[in-house]
Amino acid sequence: MAVTIYGIKNCDTMKKARSWLEDHDVAYEFHDYKGIGIDRAHLEAWIDQAGLDTVLNRAGTTFRKLPDAERENLTREKAIALMLDQPSMIKRPVLEAKDKLVIGFKPEIYAGTFGG
């Protein structure tokens, strides 16, 4: 099963997710979207599958520091533009495993996804 985990290298939640995968012998590819970036196609697919409120990290510092005018009346298009410009606004981790998409990290959800 091809597994890719997207996020930011130094994020604590990312470290927990990557440790879980390693402890359960799940081979994965890591995509650092702060260092490498992320493309519009991924964001659109994730939003289509999981919803904007799941993909956009409104609780994060990067989003909260935005001027009120940028946070208000947030459309899908405006949110995608913000996340493309500042990938720290994407919730993490985002895990793609074959046809599954898991956003956020909870050990029990990973166990259900990988049977471990």
From TrEMBL:
Pfam families assigned: ArsC (PF03960)
Database matches in Gene3D superfamilies: Glutaredoxin (3.40.30.10)
Highest taxon of source: Bacteria
InterPro entries xrefs: Arsenate_reductase-like (IPR006660), Thioredoxin-like_sf (IPR036249), Tscrpt_reg_Spx/MgsR (IPR006504)
Database matches in PANTHER family: ARSENATE REDUCTASE (PTHR30041), PROTEIN YFFB (PTHR30041:SF8)
Family note: Belongs to the ArsC family.
Protein name: ArsC family reductase
Natural source organism: Rhizobium croatiense
Record lineage: Bacteria, Pseudomonadati, Pseudomonadota, Alphaproteobacteria, Hyphomicrobiales
